[in-house]
């Protein structure tokens, strides 16, 4: 969130945040991330609008039969919600901080965002924010903001721990 805000502000965009994350698991992770955004909002006088609905069951029901494409569904529901909010609030465009992570499926996010923008009649503001990933991480650390360790969904949490376990066991050999 930090680096995209910096870049878009430098480009003279009026930027507001929108919180909607029904995919995050466990609920304590959701709360930690929400708290970090609220802290950032107050530190930087950055306006954030919250759709604070923790609808994990809906997300899980939608992805359980097609886990390989869960990211596509997750990006789509969050970008649709963001685009609709942007239209309602009379913004010219929308984007996502997902574009800062080197761990996300960048081209898929871009494709979905552009399609939603075209379908809804609002610009998807595409930027490759990945070059600022570590700058944003360092700024979050400096501000003492919680920093996530995985994408957010229960499946990415599992993958995170499985990778760590496999890495640990291979080092012991």
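Q: What amino acid sequence fits the structure above?
A:
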């Amino acid at each position: 969130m930090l680096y995209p805000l910096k870049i878009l502000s430098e480009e003279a965009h009026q930027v507001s945040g929108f919180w909607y994350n029904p995919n995050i698991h466990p609920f304590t992770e959701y709360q930690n991330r929400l708290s970090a955004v609220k802290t950032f909002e107050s530190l930087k006088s950055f306006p954030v609008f919250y759709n604070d609905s923790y609808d994990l069951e809906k997300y899980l029901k939608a992805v359980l039969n097609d886990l390989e494409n869960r990211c596509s569904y997750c990006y789509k529901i969050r970008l649709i919600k963001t685009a609709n909010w942007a239209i309602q609030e009379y913004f010219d465009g929308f984007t996502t901080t997902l574009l800062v992570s080197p761990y996300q499926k960048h081209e898929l996010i871009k494709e979905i965002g552009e399609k939603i923008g075209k379908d809804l009649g609002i610009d998807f503001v595409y930027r490759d924010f990945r070059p600022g990933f570590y700058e944003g991480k360092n700024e979050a650390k400096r501000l003492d903001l919680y920093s996530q360790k995985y994408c957010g969904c229960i499946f990415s949490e599992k993958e995170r721990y499985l990778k760590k376990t496999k890495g640990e066991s291979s080092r012991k050999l």
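Q: And what stands out in the fold?
A: Residues 167 and 173 are 10 Å apart (CA to CA).
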